[in-house]
Amino acid sequence: GDHLSANRLAYSYDGEKFVLKSVTIDVPAVGLTAVVGVEGSGKSTLAGVLAGHLRDYRGNVLLGGKQLRDVLRTSRLRYITYVGIDSELLSSTVRENLLMGDPAATEGEMWSVLSAVGLDSECRRRGGLDFELVAGGTNVSRSERLRLALARAVLHNTPIIIIDGLMDEINPVDQRKAMLALRGIARFKAVVVLTRYPVQAQFAKVVYLLSEGAIIASGSHEELMASYEPYRSACEQQERLLALEPPQSEAVDGAEHDAAGDQDPDATNVLVMPHPEGVVRTGGPRWGEGVEGHE
Predict the structure, then answer these.
(1) pTM over 0.85
(2) How far apart are CA 68 and CA 50, in angstroms?
(3) Which of 88, 175, 241, 282 is most buried, taking the most CB atoms under 10 A from its CB?
């Protein structure tokens, strides 16, 4: 089928110790797919393989029925956007950073994606699209940097978006805004979220639990809550911890906002939100078109 999938995927960095072991997952062409696992379970390696960054894998990883390692880089970049906690921003304006995602983007489209991730008000207060990020991004909070990277990824407008750990590092208030946007985006394209926290998987079509490089369970959030006690316990614990957190107000100053953004994520990671509203970009290449082989 015209979608991204992995079958009996294995990966080793040194040829001896396998970080991924016989992983089989299927990413629907439309909808949210979640991979949940503790730190060190292999999530980032899996994200790297699915994004086409790590090509020396065993087993099958297929994009539109073709081995992902054989898909030309230019073609792959039209289909898959990867964004993680180390995604870099330019020491330039917000506008220039967003244009990296789509050089033809209009101002209206830029404001739409900023609004979707809850950055529009902060951006307007600081001078709009021409607000300039200094080297290292020290004049904005970590949460704002990550959400700007997410906005740029959405603007890139590919059929698949892979989000590796980024949502884990955003504070709860901003998480809700970003996940609201992702729920809307997932109505039109494939969104893969790799996370430490089960609560971030509650709106996924399918959830895969990754442990020590292997898939140990899968199903909907509701099915796993009902049938897999460790998953249910982790989710309930996160909900209890979040309930103890005082409400957080948005700060105008980046440094103040960082105080909320850099708190302990284990205490603040529940996402409960209404149905998505807002603008979703739905263009880009159709599934199975232009997936060229052999780089």
Answers:
(1) no
(2) 8
(3) 175
